[in-house]
Amino acid sequence: MAAAVAPRPALAARCPVAPIELPAARFALAPDVNMNAAVFVNGSWIGDGGSFAEPVAHNFNRPLYFQFPPALLRPGKNEIDVLLFAYAHHFGRLAPVWVGPHATMSARYESAFFRQIVLAQLGTALAAVTAVFIAVI
Questions:
Q1: Cα–Cα distance between 128 and 122 in angstroms, integer?
Q2: pLDDT at 3
Q3: Does residue 65 lie in a domain region?
Q4: How many domains are contained in the chain?
Q5: What is the pLDDT of residue 6?
Q6: Is the dihedral of CA 28, 92, 112, 56 positive or negative?
Q7: CATH number of the domain enclosing 119
Q8: Segments forming the whole domain that contains residue 120
Q9: Region of 8 on the Ramachandran plot (φ > 0 left; ψ -120 to 50 alpha; else beta)
Q10: What are phi and psi of 102, to 5 degrees?
Q11: What is the pLDDT of residues 27-53, one digit of tens each?
Q12: Per the domain annotation, does 20 fall within a domain?
């Protein structure tokens, strides 16, 4: 009998960030991740979507939004690293990562959350109500 192979995360992306004017704080948005992700700015962890060990957090299609202090950015070249967890032989996905001020990033996050989460929940609720209605008639 073959032993089960434990899933392993893989480095998915390194995103160079252009030199920018720094407000009081910066925000990073990963609008579409499958299965889980951790985000680092210049090697410093700023957040993740939950556990990378079993049971792994399933952030399928859920946007991830992280704040980080401007002190993590340095003059010149900066890098955003995203560690993506995906099971072997399954669909791993990472949409482009956005970095910017809260005013811009929060609007993008709210829009992505509504499209990807709220509309899916409404569709599921509508399907359940329709199924009950069909069962009754």
A1: 10
A2: 45
A3: yes
A4: 1
A5: 47
A6: negative
A7: 2.60.120
A8: 10-136
A9: beta
A10: -55, -40
A11: 888 888 888 889 998 899 999 998 888
A12: yes
Using the CB atoms, write b or e for 121-133: b if 16+ within 10 Å: eeeeeeeeeeeee
Show the low-confidence residues of the chain (pLDDT under 50).
1-7, 11
CA 91 to chain centre: 15
How far is residue 23's CA from residue 60's CA, in Å, rounded to a whole number? 31
| Three-state secondary structure string covering the chain | CCCCCCCCCEEEEEEEECCCCCCCCEEEEECCEECEEEEEECCEEEEECCCCCCCCCCCCCCCEEEEECHHHCCCCCEEEEEEEECCCCCCCEECCCEEECHHHHHHHHHHHHHHHHHHHHHHHHHHHHHHHHHHHC
1 assigned to some structural domain: no
* 124 in a structural domain: yes
Cα separation of the two ends of the chain: 51
